[in-house]
Amino acid sequence: MRVRFPLMAIGLEVVMIVLFAFFVQYETNKNTSTSPNSTELPAMDTDKTMESYPHFQDVHFMVFAGFGFLMTFLRKYGFSGVGINLLIAALGLQWGTIIQGLFRSHGQRFQIEIKNMIQADFSTVPVLISFGAVLGKTSPIQMLIMTILEITVFAANEFLVFEVFSASDIGESMTIHAFGAYFGLAVAGILYRSGLKEGHPNEESVYHSDLFAMIGSLFLWIFWPSFNSATASDAKKQYRAIVNTYFSLAASVVIAYACSSLLESQGKLNMVHIQNATLAGGVAVGTCADMEIPPYYAMIIGSIAGVVSVFGFKFLTPFFTTKLRIHDTCGVHNLHGLPGVIGGLAGIITVALEKSDSTAAVSQLAALGSSIATALVGGLITGSY
Amino acid sequence: MRVRFPLMAIGLEVVMIVLFAFFVQYETNKNTSTSPNSTELPAMDTDKTMESYPHFQDVHFMVFAGFGFLMTFLRKYGFSGVGINLLIAALGLQWGTIIQGLFRSHGQRFQIEIKNMIQADFSTVPVLISFGAVLGKTSPIQMLIMTILEITVFAANEFLVFEVFSASDIGESMTIHAFGAYFGLAVAGILYRSGLKEGHPNEESVYHSDLFAMIGSLFLWIFWPSFNSATASDAKKQYRAIVNTYFSLAASVVIAYACSSLLESQGKLNMVHIQNATLAGGVAVGTCADMEIPPYYAMIIGSIAGVVSVFGFKFLTPFFTTKLRIHDTCGVHNLHGLPGVIGGLAGIITVALEKSDSTAAVSQLAALGSSIATALVGGLITGSY
Amino acid sequence: MRVRFPLMAIGLEVVMIVLFAFFVQYETNKNTSTSPNSTELPAMDTDKTMESYPHFQDVHFMVFAGFGFLMTFLRKYGFSGVGINLLIAALGLQWGTIIQGLFRSHGQRFQIEIKNMIQADFSTVPVLISFGAVLGKTSPIQMLIMTILEITVFAANEFLVFEVFSASDIGESMTIHAFGAYFGLAVAGILYRSGLKEGHPNEESVYHSDLFAMIGSLFLWIFWPSFNSATASDAKKQYRAIVNTYFSLAASVVIAYACSSLLESQGKLNMVHIQNATLAGGVAVGTCADMEIPPYYAMIIGSIAGVVSVFGFKFLTPFFTTKLRIHDTCGVHNLHGLPGVIGGLAGIITVALEKSDSTAAVSQLAALGSSIATALVGGLITGSY
Q: Which domain of life does the protein's organism represent (chains A, B, C) (predicted)?
């Protein structure tokens, strides 16, 4: 261990630098030369790409501060939660840039636009979600390996979903959230040790760690409309994704508080529900956020997600640990897995109602199936390393 | 209690969804049809409305993370401070969208623009301010009721101030800050119990809770220029509101530190002053932030607000508790009440000096009076429930 | 002490207000008069200046929340870290506005644009860096004096670097980071007391204070691309500065984790390295971030900065304390000093390779020398007060 982790981290960084030297270039003044037989890439519209920058910063904030602090709620894993989150995301965004870029350019050199940086940040999110399922069960070395493997499978599934099936998933409910959760659960299943069943003192939360986790939760909640709208293809879709996510999240909060109080003894609120289920509305509305749905529809989706998420924390997570021998440390199945599936189903229904053509609904179904299947297979393989 | 809170929360969310189904619509492609006898609303300029999005995100961050964490400074109420803040704001923004929309559309169906989302977030702020006055004295059920009632009175007063009196209040010093504080003080007066006089161990702050509160305070401080400029009608006014708020806040900090050190034994700094009085400049410059005032005038307003706020915490809050039997948990009178009144007065003076016509100054005076009067009456009625 | 601090703070604020009354004006409607013999300043393009506002907010967030919380890692100085940070920055931005404005306008009245507010925030950063070196060794009064003196020297050096030498330093690696670190080290050298050598219980970090510091560190990390691109002269340079900083920081994280694990016993990660060395890539790429460097070059700079920063914390800081009698509380030499120098050197090399003309490289060298020299002289004089 003493030198294996540093050597692997340095080795991976050197590989990234070499891959960037081969495949990545910025726009240079030379691009603007109109030489017809130039092998240079076409000039980029810099003003246009800069328009995405505020959205990028919101997503960037979610990835590094939001997910990082959400994982500090465990007494003993607080610092490793936020610290390993940073390591995964920093390595992952480099690898995500490469692998996504190569899929899109079909193996050619490519340029970096601000949208590529948003996509690179996105590509780290499934790994951060999976990390939530295995927190406390893995070493930093294992996380480096998982980062590289999971992002590779993720990029392949994204290619399937968007290029092959031409499905819609603006907030990536299926391709990021369901994918990340089921990948993590598969890894957690492999890493199961019987001692986890009884719970562990390291897993208790303490008062201050719950406040730190609340920072992360609020950051995610606040910027989720930016997440679900960041890659929209035009202003109208972007606007709809923002408004739908805003109201879905609000409904999700009210319902999550109600359900938490209903299920806890003496009507108290459970802090884990507050930190997590309030976000389920953002996940679940992700697939159809940019579609022409009436506003109250987004609120219904958010409400359903809030119910399912709280009930999942209360009943499913203990069942998974004791019966299925899958120990989901942060309960990512309830925040990302089930709401991601709800998002996928809402997408299928919306598309089926909107268009007479049934092939679009089939595409959505294929996207949901592909996201879950590749996640489970990828997770089982990764967990076996 | 066991089921009353969840039933009421679910009931309110169902009502919201039904109201949204009746009254709220997004722009759809059908809007763009030019059919002259169409009952559809006119098409929205999506690119234009998206320009407000960065301002929306800043305000959204203040409402959910800023106000939430500012209320974590009490040892025992930390989590309920930030948790109930989220519940109030999530319910309130839905109700605020409906009630403000209906006031503006005179009861017709209406569209959601980004500005409506800013206004909806704004409408939750008076409730969050009032919550600071009653923190520790109310149940979650009471907060649900207060959210609905207070936002209704708030929207009615906003209609009076902006539509009937045509007064100016860009940062809503009178309509949000003074209103929220006096509403909360009236409720706190009704809920007074003699036990509150001696103080309570739950009300003590501890070192870490003070650092959490500082997070909230800084978030508010940093984004206040966005708050005071978010609804400006043109770029010139928006720019002025930003610059004036920036310098007013800076002056407020220096003066608040000086006054805190002057009043505390051995010249130490009082953390509550630092967390609150540093923001008073943002409140006080709110009414006239977009007017053509010379820059140093904003700094003078900020300085006065800093002095008044620190002296309020030191002398007025104990007086309120012991003599007036009003227990103001977070001292909102010193952060929002008095600086809000200073803002209203600064607005009257600025308008009187700027325009020869005295009716504008009378309008401003009517707006200040209306904001305080409706707040007190609304708060007394709400507290009696 | 009892009254000296408040009197000095109030006195300085009064001086600021008077200076603003004399020298600062906003654009008013009167500016738009086309009267040819008007002494008014020319009209400002408000829409143009507002384009910088999102960048301003990112920088503002870094200065007040990022630097503030980064300094909370010490058990006892947590609150004074974040509290004095706010005081320094609030006073400093006013003085920075005046002194930078007068340098640019050659002593005439001047207008405030959003870019001036970015520059004013920038001018406080060297003081915040120096504060990190002397935290725990100074009184609030001394910090007021240091704020005024250091910003004055900083503005003079900026004038030298950008106006006289015409050097490039978009992220101000030399003029802010190296300058702030060496200024602070010079002051710390003067303030050295032998008791500091043994370390002090107040200087121990505790678990929660490390999480608070991580908040600050992540905020800085997330918004650093905005810092390095905020004052870029055109969209193309701004875009390049963003992309280069993004990848330099990512490389810096991976390498910092590797080096930390390599140097610590049993391969553990050192929290101080994680909080600080991960940012070194942002500092080091600052000077050449907007130049036409290939993308992997930025990652190499970030990697080198990560290595140097961790080794600095491990070996140089103890050496400075015991041998050089300079006690650098937060280790600013490793986060800002050395990476700032690396940034300056990378700038010289980049310019030398890019242009055949060697005068540009000489200008860069002069800028680096001037920044370090004025910092050391200014710090020694300031420390002697």
A: Eukaryota
